[in-house]
Amino acid sequence: MGPIEGLLYGFSIALTPGNLFACFIGVLVGTIVGILPGIGPVGAMALLLPSTFALQPATALIMLAGIYYGAMYGGSTTSILVNVPGEAASVVTAIEGYQMTRKGRAGAALTVAGAGSFVAGSLGVIGIVLASAWLAEQALRFGPPEYFAMALAGLLLLSRLSGGSVLQAFVLVAIGLALGTVGMEPISAVRRFTFGSTQLSQGIELVPVIMGLYGVAEVLLIAEVGAKRALIASVKLRELLPTRQEWRQSAGPIARGSVVGFFTGLIPGPAGVLSTFIAYALERKVSKTPERFGHGAIEGVAGPEAANNGATAGAMVPLLSLGIPFSPATAILLSALVITGIQPGPLLISQRPEVFWGVVASMYVGNILLLILNLPLVGLFVSVLRLPQHVLATLILLLCLVGAYSLNNSQLDLWVLVGFGIFGYGLRKLAIDPSPLVVALVLGPMMEKTLRQSLFMTRGSFVDILSRPLTMTLLLLGLAAVVAPWVIRRVRGAPVVSLPDAIR
């Protein structure tokens, strides 16, 4: 099935009444989640994951993916109108967007942000089709050593790009890998770290961990900080149309941001946040009037908003083609695939085309729905910020408890939820991103399984594993990501720092 035939088949799947409704619910929830500060798409996807158990695989994935990219739209709304980023990827948008609001150009900023998101999402769909099909074809040649090397290289790259120190990221990765070893060993079925508990034999579920790190931790922060009221700017419908000059100034940044975002999404780590900073810095570099930035330059809205939606599309490529998540949000999508009994990986396109093509086509449909929803109803969505914080916190906590318990009807999942809620709260207070832990927890079992398979293939010889060209290339790439900054400092003649200090 070629790309054109595949997309047409995907639209026939995505436009069925059930899948269209699921897409609408996903983008609607995503928009609201993006507007509400703190929850984020990861927390919302984790909360709603149990509700997808009774759905068809394609329908479940369409709804969860809608939350993922829908949150990017909603986050820009509050960044522009209230100077409160609803989602981490919208932090950069607030720099120029709120300045435009103060100048009376909030409507133009919202329209350009929506248009940039739509263009990036549309181009991202094309990128997913071309890149995923090619990568899945190449991945058929991969063996267990290549999959192990790719997962390990991904964790090493994530440790460098997670935003904090590499040492902190390594500690979180180690915790995630250790949690992944709890339960039955995949080859010999030996119980490990279960302490005699039958429930622990099944391992630690991903969903309660994510709900605790993101959902319960947010509730604790809300309880600590208390209610915060923001002055919400009103936007009339006739104010949404940008001028011709604003459209001309936005066209280039939207195109550049779409490309930057998509390729950033292919890298492990917080691609949505990282892509917006790259796009914003790029626009300042190429601008003939960089002094306008910081005072309401519309290019600073168009570029980052296109970038974060492009990164969302790019992050879907390794998930759909290789079955490897490079971010917590795609880890939840992977969980949804596994729960519904689908084997993710390069055979997904050929064995379950309705899932692959249905999800890809739904992303284009969802972007159209978001464009229709977000601009005319912007005032209605922003009014969600008037919801009392204690009501919101109670609702989040209730959903977390119900969602965690509904997985296995197990009290263990509730204890995991509470424990990681407290742990996530501590990480938030220390300004540490928990993403490395989540991704390591997902990749850990796969890494262990593929390493064991590799050792069986080579009769225990690590030399034979490393002698495979692709395996060595991937491992060197991951290692280079960790030590390259230290090497560059030495080459440039910067103050000499030991490698351990550089990692810190």
What does this structure look like?
- With 504 residues, the protein is an all-alpha fold.
- The protein has one domain (3-503).
- It contains 22 helices and two strands.
- A two-stranded antiparallel sheet has the order 1-2.
- A hairpin with a 6-residue loop joins strand 1 and strand 2 (191-192).
- Helix 4 (57-81) runs antiparallel to helix 12.
- The chain is globular.
- Mean pLDDT is 79; it is low at 496-504.
- Amount of beta strand: under 5%
Cα-to-Cα separation, first versus last residue: 49 Å
Helix/strand class:
mainly alpha
Shape: globular
The tally of helices reads 22
Order of helices and strands: HHHHHHHHEEHHHHHHHHHHHHHH
- The overall average pLDDT, rounded, is 79
Question: Secondary-structure map with pairings?
Answer:
Elements lengths: L2 H12 L2 H19 L4 H9 L8 H25 L9 H12 L3 H34 L4 H18 L4 H15 L2 E2 L6 E2 L13 H20 L18 H22 L5 H16 L12 H24 L5 H12 L8 H4 L1 H22 L3 H5 L6 H20 L2 H19 L5 H23 L4 H5 L2 H24 L6 H5 L1
Antiparallel strand pairs: 1-2
Q: Main attributes?
A:
single chain; 504 residues; two-stranded antiparallel sheet; disordered C terminus
What can be said about this structure in brief?
With 504 residues, this protein is mostly helical. 72% of the residues lie in helices and 1% in strands. Strands 1-2 form a two-stranded antiparallel ribbon.
